[in-house]
TrEMBL record:
Protein's name according to its UniProt entry: Flagellar protein
Keywords: Cell projection, Cilium, Flagellum
Source superkingdom: Bacteria
InterPro entries: Flagellar_operon_YvyF
Region (Disordered): 112-141
Biased segments, Basic and acidic residues type: 120-141
Length: 141
């Protein structure tokens, strides 16, 4: 079965397309509900006010914004910034120009994987030769 460790709590779980385990997902849901309820009652709060009132850590609140579950415009003060060039953005992790650059890099990385599979092919092909050599030896004996 395809299992992995939860990057947050280290529990082993079956990903099923999820990044974190079901326990952490439920914790996130509860935090999300708290943040959303607070912002509904106190629109235009600062990140600090949200963190203080909901006791949800700043990283988690920012994660909700990154995932697009909370509008960064609901918050006053610091909004999201691109992880690469620090340009202000509305959602996600990267601005559109960095997103494009990253996609190109990933394509390049995928292309560089090909040589290693070619080496494996060569290894497979060398085996029949070994057998032929052994057969030769037998004929001579
Ligand atoms: Zn977890
Ligand atoms: Zn950028």
């Amino acid at each position: 079965m395809n299992v992995k460790n939860c990057p947050r709590c280290n529990r082993i779980f079956v990903p099923q397309g999820r990044r974190i385990c079901p326990v952490c997902i439920r914790e996130d849901e509860e935090k999300y509900e708290r943040v959303r309820a607070f912002l509904r009652d106190h629109p235009g709060s600062t990140l600090l006010e949200v963190v203080t009132a909901t006791e949800v850590d700043e990283d988690t609140v920012l994660q909700f914004i990154k995932e697009g579950r909370i509008e960064s415009s609901d918050l006053r003060g610091p909004s999201l910034r691109c992880e690469r060039c620090d340009a202000p953005i509305d959602s996600g992790k990267l601005c559109s120009s960095c997103q494009g650059a990253l996609t190109k890099e990933l394509q390049k990385a995928a292309g560089s994987l090909k040589p290693s599979s070619a080496i494996m092919d060569r290894d497979k092909k060398s085996r029949p030769k070994d057998k032929m050599f052994t057969a030769d030896m037998k004929d001579k004996l």
